Amino acid sequence: CLGVQSELSLPGGPGEPQVLEVFENVFLAMYVAEAALNIITRGKPCFKDPWFIFDLTLVVIGTSYQWCLKFVVDESSGGILQQVLVLRTLQ
After folding, report:
1. Which end of the chain is more exposed for a tag (fewer CB within 10 A), N or C?
2. Do residues 36 and 55 make contact, with C-beta atoms less than 8 angstroms apart?
3. Closest by alpha carbon to 69, among 82, 55, 52?
4. CA gap 54, 91 in Å, rounded
């Protein structure tokens, strides 16, 4: 989904279809729910699991961009934020 979204949003491309935006929000909501359930069921010990920390970091980066920063940052200018968001593909 992310690869198709990136390809279509290239300069001169047709633009990003709205359905991909919906899919991204649905997947992010599922990842947030998964992280929350993990914290609720396992408690503090889950923060000692390096894979959980890695997943939680990706979820925080993804949600902070998709649900907050996206409306503030001009994507056409590029910059360090776009490079950091490449981590979303690792999720």
Report:
1. N
2. no
3. 82
4. 9
pLDDT digits (tens, 9 = 90+) for 14-53: 556 677 778 888 999 999 999 999 999 999 999 999 999 9
d(CA 3, CA 71): 21
- Per-residue HEC secondary structure of the chain comes to CHHHHHHHCCCCCCCCCHHHHHHHHHHHHHHHHHHHHHHHHHCHHHHHCHHHHHHHHHHHHHHHHHHCHHHCCCHHHCCHHHHHHHHHHHC
The mean predicted confidence, pLDDT, of the chain is 77
Asked whether the CA dihedral 67, 73, 76, 81 is positive or negative, the reply is: negative
CA distances from 44 to 19, 52, 80 (A): 37, 11, 32
